[in-house]
Design a protein that fits this description.
single chain, 296 residues, Rossmann fold, 6-stranded parallel sheet, 3-stranded parallel sheet, 9 helices, binds ligand LMY7XDAE, oxidoreductase
Length: 296
C-alpha cells in the first residue's frame, strides 16, 4: 500500500479562493478585514511564516499590518504594541508570532490580546470556549493548526468518527487543543495525547487509526510502529542538515518510509503548514462576518 496524499497546498488554494469571494462581500459593505502580525526578533523561519501570512492576505483581499520588534524588546514595549493593535480599527484581527524570546512572558502577551481580535484562537477566553464547547455554532476562532487538520481530513473524505487518534506533542498551538476539537460530538473521535515523556508510545501508536505527529523530532514515527492503513498527519518540523548537499532542509516527524504502510499521509512540507495559514484567514474573515451579522 502507498498512502494517498492529503494535499495541503491544493486545499489551502481552494479555501483562499472561497475566502476571496467572502472578503468581497465584506468590503462591498464597507467592512475591510485587516490582519496584523507581531514579529519579535530575527528567526528566519518566523520571518518566512509571517511573510507568507501577508502574501496570503494580499491574495484574498485582506489588508495587513506588519509590526516588527527587536529580539531584546522589553515586555512593557511589546505590551504597548498589543494595546495599540487592540485599539486600532484597521486591525480586525492579529497574531503574535510564536515562539517569543525567552525573556518575554508569552502567556501574559497572549492574554493581553483582545479576544475579539485573536486571529490565532490562542487567547484563554477562546481556548476556554473550546473547552466548554460553547463554540457550536462557531462563535469564536479555533486554533489554526487543529482547525486546519480537521478541514484537510474532511475535504479529502477521511472519516474520524469512532477512530482512535494518537496525538504526539503537547504544545499549545497543536497538541493540547486538537483533542478538544476531535472529541466534539460532531467529530466523535477518541483521542490519546502522548508526548516525549510517554513511556508506552510504541503500544499507543500500534493501536492508532490516525497519528498526529507534532513533537518536532525528526522522523521519530517509523513505519514499523504504525498500523497498516493508518492516517498520518506530519505536523512537527525541524531543520536538519542534508548529508548530500550539506544544506539545512525541512524534516517532519514522520519517516517517509511510513507512507508505504499508511492509507493517507499529509506531506511535510505541503500538508498541514499551508492549512494553518488558510485557517488563519478563515478566522479573520469569520470574525468580520460575525461583526457584520452575516455569520451567526
Ligand atoms: N502565532 C502563531 N505562531 C506559530 C504558529 C501559529 O499557528 N500561530 N504555528 C507555527 C508556525 N506557523 C505559523 O505561524 C506555520 C508553520 C509552517 C507553515 C507552512 O506553511 N509551512 C510550509 C513550509 C514552509 C517552508 O518551506 O519553510 C509547509 O508546511 O508546506 C505555515 C505556518 C509556530 N508558530
Amino acid at each position: 500500500m502507498t498512502a494517498r496524499i492529503l494535499d495541503g497546498r491544493a486545499t489551502a488554494t481552494a479555501i483562499k479562493s472561497e475566502l476571496a469571494d467572502r472578503v468581497k462581500v465584506l468590503t462591498d459593505r464597507g467592512r475591510v478585514p485587516g490582519l496584523a502580525t507581531v514579529l519579535v526578533g530575527d528567526d528566519p523561519a518566523s520571518h518566512s511564516y509571517v511573510t507568507g501570512k501577508h502574501r496570503d492576505c494580499e491574495q484574498v483581499g485582506i489588508s495587513s499590518i506588519r509590526k516588527e520588534l527587536p529580539a531584546d524588546v522589553s515586555q512593557a514595549d511589546l505590551e504597548k504594541v498589543i494595546d495599540e493593535l487592540n485599539e486600532d480599527p484597521a486591525c480586525t484581527g492579529y497574531i503574535v508570532q510564536l515562539p517569543l524570546p525567552e525573556h518575554i512572558n508569552t502567556n501574559a502577551i497572549l492574554e493581553r490580546v483582545d479576544p475579539a481580535k485573536d486571529a490565532d484562537g490562542l487567547h484563554p477566553t477562546n481556548l476556554g470556549r473550546l473547552v466548554l464547547n460553547v463554540n457550536e455554532p462557531m462563535t469564536s476562532p479555533l486554533p489554526c493548526t487543529p482547525a486546519g487538520i480537521v478541514e484537510l481530513l474532511e475535504r479529502h473524505g477521511v472519516e474520524l468518527k469512532g477512530k482512535h487518534v494518537v496525538v504526539v506533542g503537547r504544545g499549545v498551538t497543536v497538541g493540547r487543543p486538537i483533542g478538544l476539537l476531535l472529541t466534539r460530538r460532531e467529530i466523535n473521535a477518541t483521542v490519546t495525547l502522548a508526548h516525549t515523556g510517554t513511556q508506552n508510545l510504541g503500544e499507543l501508536l500500534a493501536q492508532a487509526d490516525v497519528v498526529v505527529a507534532a513533537a518536532g523530532r525528526p522522523h521519530m514515527i517509523r513505519a514499523e510502529q504504525i498500523k497498516d492503513g493508518a492516517v498520518l498527519l506530519d505536523v512537527g518540523v525541524s531543520r536538519v542538515e542534508d548529508p548530500e548537499t550539506g544544506k539545512k532542509k525541512l524534516t517532519g516527524d514522520i519517516d517517509p518510509a511510513a507512507a508505504q504502510k499508511a492509507s493517507w499521509l499529509s506531506p511535510n512540507p505541503g500538508g498541514v503548514g499551508p492549512m494553518t495559514r488558510a485557517m488563519l484567514l478563515v478566522n479573520v474573515v469569520e470574525s468580520c462576518e460575525r461583526a457584520e451579522g452575516i455569520l451567526t
